[in-house]
From TrEMBL:
Species of provenance: Rhodovulum visakhapatnamense
UniProt keyword Cell inner membrane, yes or no: no
Pfam families in the cross-refs: tRNA-synt_1c (PF00749)
PROSITE patterns for the chain: AA_TRNA_LIGASE_I
Positions of the Glutamyl/glutaminyl-tRNA synthetase class Ib catalytic domain: 2-100, 176-274
A biological process term (GO) from this entry: glutamyl-tRNA aminoacylation
UniProt KW keywords: Aminoacyl-tRNA synthetase, ATP-binding, Ligase, Metal-binding, Nucleotide-binding, Protein biosynthesis, Zinc
GO cellular component, as recorded: cytosol
Family: Belongs to the class-I aminoacyl-tRNA synthetase family.
Name this polypeptide is given: Glutamyl-Q tRNA(Asp) synthetase
Length: 276
């Protein structure tokens, strides 16, 4: 079974990453993917540190490693397909515009879903021919669901927290996800589109990743169905929390694997710290 570990080189790997990588490694053949589309935040030295830390942990993976910065034309092709299907529109709204639209008296309470604030649809009627460099490209969620028809796809979750098959729910997608961004103005793609294209390209059987991404999975399964890509199984694992019960972030350098290494910890200590 092929699994993957897909870190972004935007900071040191911490205990949460160690747990994610060890989980992927134990559940199958782990492929590594460097998610470096955000070039403003990604740095080559973080990438090198990722390889060092993973090797130190005793993990191994096939080479060459897939790097998202080299895959922009594949993301572009997927975006073009969704555009050709008539499911997208250009959007020039900035975050402040979206907040302003959502705070209008008639707008109701803003909903924050797995992709952030649910977009109020301000630009939805703009034609694609109108798209310029200042525009993001959004998926028209209602049209996408129409296209898939009444029998929506499902995914299998093999993780401990949300057992069972999960069928996509049109109403939840409209109300809590909405018109997600497929291509950011500055990047030409988005996390959701890139991850779907790459999991298919790498022929991943089971996507292993943190619980924080469970809610985003219906977006990925929807895009797979639209693009005619296979849906892998998903295994969302528990998050490693800090002493205050908050999930670890890249900025929590104190929890960095490199810091534990420098203090003399062994790979076995790391495994114990993450509860393995
Ligand atoms: N690149 C993401 C991260 O570092 C993980 C995305 C995924 O596993 O789907 O948080």
């Amino acid at each position: 079974m092929r699994t993957r570990f897909a870190p972004s080189p935007t900071g040191p790997l911490h205990l949460g990453h160690a747990f994610a990588a060890l989980t992927a490694f134990e559940r199958g053949q782990m492929l590594l993917r460097i998610e470096d589309i955000d070039t403003a935040r990604s740095r080559p030295d973080w990438e090198t540190q990722i390889y060092n830390d993973l090797a130190w942990l005793g993990l191994d993976w096939p080479r060459p490693v897939l790097r998202q910065s080299g895959r922009l034309s594949a993301y572009r092709a997927a975006l073009d397909r969704l555009c050709a299907m008539g499911l997208t529109y250009p959007c020039r709204c900035r975050r402040a515009d979206i907040r302003a639209a959502l705070s209008a008296p008639q707008a109701g309470a803003p909903v924050i879903g797995p992709d952030g604030l649910v977009y109020p649809g301000t630009c939805r009627e703009r034609p694609l021919s109108d798209a310029g460099p200042e525009d993001a490209i959004r998926l028209d969620m209602a049209r996408a669901l129409d296209r898939l028809g009444p029998h929506l796809p499902a995914f299998t979750e093999t993780g401990p927290m949300h057992p069972g098959p999960h069928r996509l729910d049109a109403r939840a997608l409209i109300e809590t996800v909405g018109d997600v961004v497929l291509a950011r103005r500055d990047l030409g793609t988005s996390y959701h589109l890139a991850v779907v294209v790459d999991d298919a390209f790498q022929e991943i059987d089971e996507v292993t990743r943190g619980e924080d991404l469970f809610e985003a999975t219906p977006i990925h399964v929807l895009l797979q169905a639209l693009l005619g890509l296979p849906t892998p199984a998903y295994h969302h694992h528990r998050l490693i929390l800090d002493d205050a019960g908050k999930r670890l972030a890249k900025r929590d350098d104190a929890r960095a694997i490199a810091a534990y290494r420098a203090e003399g910890a062994t790979p076995a200590d790391i495994r114990r710290m993450v509860g393995l």
